[in-house]
Design goal:
Layout (H helix, E strand, L loop, with lengths): L1 E5 L2 E7 L4 E8 L9 E6 L2 H5 L9 E7 L3 E8 L2 E6 L4
Length: 88
């Protein structure tokens, strides 16, 4: 998976060998202070409704820490995992 934050939006995509499929598109709230932080993203449910592999949730909790980057929980095929990213 790949997460991109641009302005006040976060977009998360499933990444395949030659494909990119939307998983999440929603709001991003920048931290008010340095350090570890969390936010609840309000999903763009209209955009995600037309994406086959997109989340069906209206909100999603994201966390940032220097150790784990941006992370969130994802459930697919009945299995829930925590996805952790690194800044590139």
């Amino acid at each position: 998976m790949e997460a991109t934050i641009s302005g006040d939006t976060i977009e998360v995509n499933w990444i395949g060998t030659d494909t990119k499929s939307l998983y999440w598109k929603g709001t991003y709230q920048a931290p008010a202070a340095a350090g570890d932080w969390k936010w609840t993203s309000q999903g763009d449910t209209e955009t995600m409704a037309s994406a086959l592999l997109a989340s069906q949730d209206a909100t999603k909790d994201f966390t940032y820490s220097e150790a784990d980057g941006v992370s969130w929980e994802t459930t697919a095929l009945g299995t829930t995992i925590t996805v952790k990213t690194v800044k590139q």
